[in-house]
């Protein structure tokens, strides 16, 4: 799970129960009842953009087209940049052996 999704809870901030369920369900988003079709499209795009090297067609047209059904060009650009940003931080943490989720005030 990306650190951006877990950091508020790690800081001890109070979260509504629904948001907690959704955060805990991100890893199983395909089987979870907590996400809208638009959110599922965004999660599918995030997964495709993240897993580039283990697929012959990393971001299939079907995945992109499904996201484009729910998001306009500006929103898609923002979504792709957010995915890329999360991926950069995750890769920097891996490269420098920084454990995710260790937040210190």
Structure description:
There is one protein chain. The protein has about 100 residues and is mainly alpha-helical. The protein has a single domain, classed as AhpD-like (Up-down Bundle). The chain contains 5 helices and no strands. The longest helix has 23 residues. It is globular and about 40 Å long. The N terminus is likely disordered.
Number of E-type strands: 0
> How many distinct folded domains?
1
Please identify the structural class as seen in this structure. mainly alpha
In percent, how helical is the residue content? 55-70%
CATH class: Mainly Alpha
> Topology as H/E string?
HHHHH
Mean pLDDT: 84
CATH superfamily: AhpD-like
**In oligomeric terms, what are we looking at?**
single chain
- What is the CATH third-level topology name? AhpD-like
Shape: globular
Count of DSSP-assigned helices: 5
Q: Which radius of gyration do the C-alpha atoms yield?
A: 15 Å
Largest sheet: none
List keywords for this structure.
mainly alpha, globular, 5 helices, AhpD-like, 105 residues, single chain
List the helices and strands and how they pair.
Blueprint: H1 3-10, H2 17-25, H3 37-50, H4 61-70, H5 73-95
Helix pairs in contact: 3-4, 3-5
